[in-house]
Write a structure and sequence with these properties.
Elements: H1 2-34, H2 37-71, H3 75-78, H4 83-96, E1 100-103, E2 114-118, E3 121-128, H5 136-148, E4 153-158, H6 164-173, E5 176-178, H7 180-209
Helix pairs in contact: 1-2, 2-7, 5-6
Length: about 210
């Protein structure tokens, strides 16, 4: 659903850009017909200043806002997320770690929230946003879910910690556990990358806009 909304948003923005360019082209034709010096000056200004500014506000600025919002997230913010939002956020963090991810449909997912792939290995991932230590049944659900989804490995990701029973079961079943400390490192790494990307886009954007 989130990807479909993003595609609709990108398509609408692209359509707006195309319509604006067509409008400017029509203005140029009218300007030639009118042979107005003032009109030609306006057209030159619109092409060399207006279009780069329009591109910035339609394409660059919204992306920068989204990345800045993600970059500013802290563990305290993650602690208040809904379960569904936490799943998508973990998927985004895993993509930064080099995984290719697919979030499952939600209801009836059999304890697996994300299917992640990296280096030819597939992982059945269960996400547990909680304020209590995660018990062993989360590990058993992920291990059982990997068989259903045909994955080679199981993983449980939480914003908190695991009970001793969960850790013991994870060791015997080779289930990967990602606790609060590891999640914090993922977030910090993601923040550094998005900040660098934002700075790079700002530099490139300034280069396009400058005369």
């Amino acid at each position: 659903m989130a990807r479909r909304r993003k595609r609709r948003y990108d398509n609408s923005q692209s359509l707006l850009l195309v319509r604006t360019m067509l409008a400017l082209l029509l203005i140029g034709i009218l300007g030639r017909l009118l042979s107005s010096e003032l009109f030609r000056c306006f057209l030159i200004f619109a092409v060399f200043v207006g279009l780069p500014a329009l591109y910035f506000f339609v394409k660059v600025y919204p992306h920068r806002v989204r990345m800045e919002r993600l970059r500013c997230l802290r563990l305290a913010d993650v602690d208040t997320m809904s379960g569904h939002t936490f799943e998508h956020y973990v998927a985004r963090l895993m993509e930064h770690q080099g995984f290719k991810t697919t979030v499952t449909k939600g209801s009836g997912d059999l304890g697996v929230d994300i299917i992640a792939r990296k280096n030819g290995v597939s992982y059945a991932v269960q996400c547990k946003r909680s304020s209590d230590n995660i018990p062993r049944n989360a590990v058993s659900d992920a291990v059982a879910g990997k068989q259903h989804y045909g994955c080679q490995e199981a993983m449980v990701v939480t914003n908190w910690y695991f009970t001793s029973g969960a850790k013991e079961l994870a060791r015997s079943t080779h289930c990967v556990l990602v606790d609060r400390e590891t999640l914090a490192r993922w977030i910090q790494s993601f923040q550094r990358r998005t900040l660098a990307e934002s700075n790079l886009q700002q530099t490139e954007g300034n280069g396009r806009i400058s005369p």
